[in-house]
């Protein structure tokens, strides 16, 4: 009956009269009554009770406008829902009015002066905790980041805490070494030493970025550990500054500045690569900003701890302070490297680089199983020594040029292989060849496109061919049929890698950059 009654249109005269009645009823002062059930029911009928009904947005019934009601006595609430809008009916005795929610907020029947603590009740401890965590976590956490983000950030915050605490101790030692607090020391000499140290550090930063910039994305975990190791070396040199003779102090400070510059280049590049891995909704900027916020907050705590340690060491005798300071520094360095190792090991990268591809190929060749990123995470080498010893194993000749192709091989075999590839209309986008030159024997691939999937398939084909040749012991595979079989097996393996959770839309595999045009073969 209520819905049928509200569907009937109101005349202009009745609408104005009903609007004035509703406004007067809302502005009446509320009288205190007993908290019994009957009195509550009577109070609701006298002063207005709000009844909410779900009404579709496309309703045709004529409604009373809010412009005719004194809105200063009403409190706005949210009224928009997906697909429907909540229409409210205010009951005043035996009169009912429908408050339209289209383009206007729905209201409560109680005036503002009767609800002084409503907003404070809405903001509880749970909301305050959420607002506090939103300053340190990306928007949409944990769905907006990868599953390994939380574990990595925990260990990264702990290593940042140790690094900040060590920084205060090292800064105190450097200032003491350059003459702060010594009446015989010159402020000009200390300024020149500091400026020279910065010049050498920035120059070494440029040289190192030019030398190893392309490898920082390929091995982010290795260079992250390298950065933290150089940082610890630089801090150890700063801590030993008071014991260095004045004649060698400038060279000593320049060496520590060089190590710290390498830390900046390696740490920034590896951090960017890992941040890109964590982003699941193209929120790279949000994750990077929250990472800086976390580091700053943890750094403040580390500075406070370092200040307390420095003040405690300053109250001790010099001999005892030196021994205790070295022991504290050594403990912090060990914790710093342990937390960095755990942070890097917690990251589960899903893109292929040479070490990860080698693990996948060996496991597939030995057992026939396709490993996922979680299984490769614990087997991936992270130390720089492991990459140097196995550097030749990870080399793949992908994207070789035609000039190099004909200069190192038999022209007849290469021409027949190219014609065979062209007869297939370059269906695979890559072709596998073997090098017959006595100087360099092995496999290489030519590509017809520069797509990431093509480079990955060519690298997989070269790896499978090398493993097959080493296992059979019959030398290199030379026939077109065997090479064609290897290429098809590589394509099947790449499809299986996608099903196992690997991201083949990007890669960090080396290739020369040469793309074969079909017109060159013709």
Summarize the structure.
58% of the residues lie in helices and 8% in strands.
Describe the protein in words.
The protein is mostly helical and 522 residues long. It is 58% helix and 8% strand. It has helices at residues 2-7, 12-26, 37-47, 118-122, 125-134, 149-177, 187-212, 220-239, 249-278, 284-314, 318-346, 354-367, 373-377, 384-389, 402-407, 411-423, 452-472, 480-499, 518-521; strands spanning 49-56, 76-77, 84-92, 95-99, 106-107, 397-398, 430-436, 441-447. It has a three-stranded antiparallel beta sheet with strand order 1-3-4. α8 (220-239) packs antiparallel against α11 (318-346) and α12 (354-367) crosses α17. The longest helix has 31 residues, at 284-314.
Rg of Cα set: 36 Å
- The end-to-end span amounts to 84 Å
What's the shape? Answer: globular
- The chain-level mean pLDDT equals 75
Order of helices and strands: HHHEEEEEHHHHHHHHHHHEHHEEHHH
Characterize the main sheet: 3 strands, antiparallel
Count all strands and give the number: 8
Strand content: 5-15%
Fraction in helix: 55-70%
Count every helix, treating DSSP H or I runs of 4 or more residues as helices: 19
Order of neighbouring strands in the sheet with most strands = 1-3-4
Structural class: mainly alpha
List low-pLDDT spans: 34-117
Tags for this entry?
three-stranded mixed β-sheet; 19 helices; three-stranded antiparallel β-sheet; mainly alpha; 522 residues; single chain
């Amino acid at each position: 009956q209520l819905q049928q009654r509200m569907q009937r249109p109101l005349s202009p005269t009745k609408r104005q009269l009903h609007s004035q009645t509703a406004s007067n009823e809302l502005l009446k002062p509320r009288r205190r009554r007993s908290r019994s059930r009957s009195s509550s029911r009577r109070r609701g009928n006298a002063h207005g009770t709000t009844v909410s009904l779900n009404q579709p947005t496309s309703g045709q019934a004529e409604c009373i406008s809010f412009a005719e009601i004194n809105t200063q006595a009403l409190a706005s609430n949210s009224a928009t829902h997906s697909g429907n809008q909540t229409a409210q009916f205010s009951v005043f005795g035996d009169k009912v009015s429908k408050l339209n929610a289209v383009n206007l907020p729905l209201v409560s029947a109680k005036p503002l002066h009767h609800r002084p603590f409503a907003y404070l009740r809405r903001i509880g401890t749970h909301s305050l905790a959420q607002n506090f965590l939103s300053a340190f976590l990306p928007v949409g956490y944990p769905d907006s980041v990868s599953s390994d983000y939380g574990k990595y950030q925990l260990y990264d915050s702990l290593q940042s805490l140790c690094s900040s605490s060590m920084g205060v101790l090292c800064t105190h030692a450097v200032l003491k070494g350059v003459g702060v607090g010594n009446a015989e020391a010159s402020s000009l000499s200390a300024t020149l030493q500091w400026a020279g140290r910065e010049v050498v550090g920035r120059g070494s930063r440029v040289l190192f970025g030019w030398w190893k910039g392309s490898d920082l994305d390929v091995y982010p975990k290795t260079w992250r550990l390298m950065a933290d190791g150089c940082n610890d070396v630089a801090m150890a040199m700063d801590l030993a500054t008071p014991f260095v003779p004045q004649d060698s102090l400038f060279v000593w400070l320049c060496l520590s500045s060089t190590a710290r510059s390498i830390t900046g280049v390696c740490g920034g590049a590896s951090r960017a690569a890992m941040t890109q891995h964590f982003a699941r909704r193209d929120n790279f900027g949000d994750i990077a900003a929250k990472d800086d916020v976390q580091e700053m907050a943890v750094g403040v705590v580390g500075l406070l701890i370092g200040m307390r340690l420095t003040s405690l060491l300053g109250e001790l005798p010099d001999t005892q302070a030196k021994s205790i300071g070295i022991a504290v520094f050594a403990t912090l360095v060990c914790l710093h490297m342990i937390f960095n190792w755990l942070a890097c090991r917690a990251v589960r990268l899903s893109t292929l680089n040479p070490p990860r591809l080698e693990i996948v190929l060996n496991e597939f060749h030995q057992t026939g199983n396709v490993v996922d990123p979680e299984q490769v995470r614990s087997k991936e080498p992270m130390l720089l020594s492991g990459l140097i010893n196995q550097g030749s194993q990870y080399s793949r000749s992908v994207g070789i040029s035609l000039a190099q192709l004909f200069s190192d091989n038999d022209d007849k075999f290469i021409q027949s292989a190219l014609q065979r590839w062209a007869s297939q209309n370059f269906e695979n986008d890559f072709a596998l060849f073997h090098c017959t030159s006595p100087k360099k024997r092995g496999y290489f691939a030519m590509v017809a496109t520069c797509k990431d999937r093509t480079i990955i398939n060519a690298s997989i084909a070269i790896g499978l061919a090398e493993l097959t040749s080493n296992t059979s012991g019959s030398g290199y595979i030379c026939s077109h049929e065997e090479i064609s079989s290897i290429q098809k097996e590589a394509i099947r393996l790449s499809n299986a890698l996608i099903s196992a959770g690997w991201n083949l839309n990007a890669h960090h595999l080396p290739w020369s950059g040469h793309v074969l045009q079909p017109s060159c073969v013709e």
